[in-house]
Design brief:
Blueprint lengths: L1 H4 L12 H7 L7 H4 L12 H6 L1 H19 L4 H12 L3 H11 L11 H13 L9 H4 L8
Helix pairs in contact: 6-7
């Protein structure tokens, strides 16, 4: 945000709550999630040791994640979710509503990774010259912990 304000950049990625400040300042918003349907806006990561030594923790976490996302996406729970966001993020109601509305379409059911999005991200990093070697998706992703 600061680089935008100082004229050092023309574009940046902003996350809540900074995105709301950019809105207030009149910056134009480009919603990547609306253009890049396969982009992964949220992911879950764990170390190899954690997965190997305590898989039950990973299963429990993924079950809780799936339950939480289901709760958040249920329109009947909107008021309660807004209240939780306001309390936990110390936000005003209007900001909590905007943030929830922004993030809802991007929440992955059960924390599932969009494989096309991962492939796209890897290709973009390669194209930018940041990634010099090949990455195998089977070494990068482990889908066995999804709730069945």
């Amino acid at each position: 945000m600061q680089t935008l304000q100082q004229g050092q950049s023309a574009v940046t990625i902003l996350s809540p709550l900074i995105d709301l400040k950019a809105d207030e300042l009149g910056y134009k918003r480009f919603l990547m999630r609306d253009e890049l349907k396969t982009y992964n806006h949220n992911m879950i990561a764990a170390s190899g040791d954690q997965i190997k030594n305590k898989p039950e923790v990973i299963y429990a976490f993924m079950a809780a994640e799936a339950e939480a996302v289901t709760f958040i996406k249920d329109k009947a729970n909107r008021d309660e979710v807004i209240k939780i966001v306001m309390e936990q993020m110390e936000m005003k109601q209007a900001d909590a509503e905007k943030s929830l509305d922004f993030v809802l379409p991007a929440l992955a059911d059960q924390g599932k990774i969009n494989m096309e999005g991962i492939k796209w991200a890897i290709d973009m990093v390669k194209e930018a010259g940041v990634l010099k070697k090949e990455i195998s998706l089977d070494k990068l992703l482990d889908e066995r912990f999804y709730v069945k």
